Amino acid sequence: MRSKGIPMIGSGLVFPIQEDVLSCNPFTIPPHYARIAAIDFGYDHPTAVVWLAWDRDEDIVYVYDCYRMAKQIPSYHATHINEREGSDWIPIVFPHDGYQHDKGSGVTLAEQYRDNYVNMLPFHFENPPAIGEKRGGNSVEAGLMEMLDRMEHGKFKVFNTLYDWFEEYRMYHRKDGKLVKLKDDLMSATRYAALSLRHSTTKGSRWQSKGTLAPDVAIV
Question: Do the domain assignments include residue 155?
Answer without folding.
Answer: yes
